[in-house]
Amino acid sequence: xxxxxxxxxxxxxxxxxxxxxxxxxxxxxxxxxxxxxxxxxxxxxxxxxxxxxxxxxxxxxxxxxxxxxxxxxxxxxxxxxxxxxxxxxxxxxxxxxxxxxxxxxxxxxxxxxxxxxxxxxxxxxxxxxxxxxxxxxxxxxxxxxxxxxxxxxxxxxxxxxxxxxxxxxxxxxxxxxxxxxxxxxxxxxxxxxxxxxxxxxxxxxxxxxxxxxxxxxxxxxxxxxxxxxxxxxxxxxxxxxxxxxxxxxxxxxxxxxxxxxxxxxxxxxxxxxxxxxxxxxxxxxxxxxxxxxxxxxxxxxxxxxxxxxxxxxxxxxxxxxxxxxxxxxxxxxxxxxxxxxxxxxxxxxxxxxxxxxxxxxxxxxxxxxxxxxxxxxxxxxxxxxxxxxxxxxxxxxxxxxxxxxxxxxxxxxxxxxxxxxxxxxxxxxxxxxxxxxxxxxxxxxxxxxxxxxxxxxxxxxxxxxxxxxxxxxxxxxxxxxxxxxxxxxxxxxxxxxxxxxxxxxxxxxxxxxxxxxxxxxxxxxxxxxxxxxxxxxxxxxxxxxxxxxxxxxxxxxxxxxxxxxxxxxxxxxxxxxxxxxxxxxxxxxxxxxxxxxxxxxxxxxxxxxxxxxxxxxxxxxxxxxxxxxxxxxxxxxxxxxxxxxxxxxxxxxxxxxxxxxxxxxxxxxxxxxxxxxxxxxxxxxxxxxxxxxxxxxxxxxxxxxxxxxxxxxxxxxxxxxxxxxxxxxxxxxxxxxxxxxxxxxxxxxxxxxxxxxxxxxxxxxxxxxxxxxxxxxxxxxxxxxxxxxxxxxxxxxxxxxxxxxxxxxxxxxxxxxxxxxxxxxxxxxxxxxxxxxxxxxxxxxxxxxxxxxxxxxxxxxxxxxxxxxxxxxxxxxxxxxxxxxxxxxxxxxxxxxxxxxxxxxxxxxxxxxxxxxxxxxxxxxxxxxxxxxxxxxxxxxxxxxxxxxxxxxxxxxxxxxxxxxxxxxxxxxxxxxxxxxxxxxxxxxxxxxxxxxxxxxxxxxxxxxxxxxxxxxxxxxxxxxxxxxxxxxxxxxxxxxxxxxxxxxxxxxxxxxxxxxxxxxxxxxxxxxxxxxxxxxxxxxxxxxxxxxxxxxxxxxxxxxxxxxxxxxxxxxxxxxxxxxxxxxxxxxxxxxxxxxxxxxxxxxxxxxxxxxxxxxxxx
Length: 1164
Prior knowledge:
This protein is mostly helical. 68% of the residues lie in helices and 2% in strands.
């Protein structure tokens, strides 16, 4: 019987879902006040209402949502969001816990889901201490014959949720939770025919397997023994239930497909986590392979409906579609269920292919597998319709950026994981199938969609084979490569001609409906596109067997472009009703995808200007209708197209700049397209003649400055961030670099700088995300970056006068950190490229000189009101000012104060990238004059408020400097830091030597042996560090940097190539190792041990052999320069005992001494 209180609560709950906003707000306030005053009684009433099945389902669901909020606030201080002061009393807590367990039997799945959440939430603080019977109660409900199916479903779902959030390793093993779950699931499966319950059981087992695999199994023999037994039991459960479903009838019921898929998922989880069990049991794996193969054969029936009909036709195929959807068993769309099942089973093939070799299958099973892959590679009607409506969908799908389940991705991964023999077998089979299908189509002389789709599917499978990273040893007696390549080319040409002729035929055909006509046009486009994409993959795969493959590639691409553009003109002239909106976008975008693949094995500069012009026509025709993923494809292709001949592309107009801007400004907040657009602009401007550069500036700079101007005109209350303005500054920065300077951002690409001369070699496309090995001598943009041999770029005065006032005003008016970052980069480039113009500049309206404005801008950046994140480029700005304006009297006057302000800003900075930027200033100063820099930092003091006294700037800055080096990224920054540290060490300044900084971490000391410090406890203990002299720390950092720079993925093979084995043998002899070990050098190096300082000096003196130990800089790649610099420094230190190196060496760890021995002495 409802109480007065419960009626009041129900009325409040109804009021909260009222359309009347005032009533809703009033009821929420009253509701919150009631619960705050007496949470025990109020929560009791809520649960009591929820227990009553006669109450409105919406009200019961609302109560469970309120519990989600109220439990953390009033249940226990164990919740971080506990509010109090009143809490739910113990009697009510017990009532709520038992009531919730009762509610997991509710027929409504949404009620059960809400109850599960509440139980898991409470169990997080109550289990096991206050709720010790929780798991036992759940097991009992799940396995009891008296429990309803709803109760079993709720219990199983609850156990699943508890595994994700609650069960610990100790409970899993030592408290027998895993054992109880396995036995309970086994018992339930043996006496239950309810498919929904079985699905829930296997989902629970998947969670259990995941928990077992993430546990520390090897911590005890008992755990190892349990795992061995448990895996066998779990495999037995899965295979027993799988065999019970091995009949054709399962294909007629969605629920059976879903159950079988869940069992397979459970097996896949077992295989992924404990694959050694399967690899040692070939009978089991062969059985599993045959199960999958058989099921995939049966599923071709429903999948064929998806190929030929709309997806809703599939609903009529299954006998239980309506019931399945009503029961809401997971994802209830039949097409999703089928495609997901097939995709996961193909992934099962991928897992099993390491054990079950495809080539060893019997002939029938081999053919069955190949034919099933053809069927499942066919595009569904829905997917093809999406492509027809919008070619952007095709690009997303083809490049692997589509978020939907994609069967082709699974098939690609399967084929890519096969070994060479398996791939060759597939290549033979599908090449024969392709030619047979083409012949059948020509003989029938019919527009059968099935033929087009099958040919396109076979083409995709050949694409997979050609994309395989396995080397190819094709027997040309079985597959004549020249002949098959010509077949592909002829197929493209014949199908383009057929597509062009089909327009008139379709217009005159009154017997075919428009949908079928559109599908026919689409199918032909897709087939042509597939063949176009295959060609570069074929040439790349078999380049060793095709002596003139590059010439073939260029000629073929040229012909495809000419024919495709002719086809496009034909469509435009005939004003086709079919594909009018797409403008052959599928074919055109496939050409761009294909072109990115050509660049895997052919330098961009190898292509002709005609190809360059035609590709630009393709891009221009797509630009107005392209979207996100297509825009990225266009920019990726454009960066290669530009590099064919960027001087030719820039000598007459700025059309490519307009194209880049057009794409980028579609969505200026898209970081990915912005980065690609910037790279395109850099490639376009790099190394072009100055006249070409100013042609590009005419549009490029004017367009972005207009956007800046527009922002300045609206600057009454300062300038706010907009994506358009930030992108404009980004493009302006590229222009300000000029035509012959390397972008400083390239210097921050860590270890990629040495690859700049190869930057468009293998310009990888996103499709299917597989890596590719590239020839080292291939380069699309082979500009060389020979910066030092060129005249420094100076912007002309007109451009300077156009840009400088606007950038200066923008910096002074905006407070946005992102805009300040970008604008400071622009300003820095003006300092570098227009030094004289700034010195002579005078603003007529304010009477300020260029130097006045410079100081004003520096002052703004140093203001405490400017956030750290605005200063990421400020270090470069200060360095440029020092370098270019050191002779200006006004700058000289204020420079000491500026440097002191920079020091203070560095000390107060929290953002690591800001610290790195400001450290650049001291790196440059130290390289220029190390003693003056140390004197400067020593000569002024900083207030340390918390210490109530002053400290020298040196004593504060140097520890920050050292810490920053340990996490610094970017080759140029690291190299300059290395040079600066070397100069500081060589000073042997006592003030540096006496300064103590953090050394190595001190191991955690357990003072109480009765307490075991767990990993989680250790994470909470503050790390303590040794205190060591700064000079010792500098040497340690430089040793670790040398070790890092010298490390390679395959250390042994690299050492074998670089190690001077004679030195190793001599060193071993000198250390008294006269054993008769092998003389290959490896054991000898190990036996050297840790040499004393005197022995190190001997080694270094012997290895020097009269060579100059100075760095010969520009003759070396960047990484080589840093390695050489460090090696020479350590040699010099050892020979001359620079900085009292002997004492420092004796304080190094043995591992650090070994690094010096191996990398400084015994490598070339």
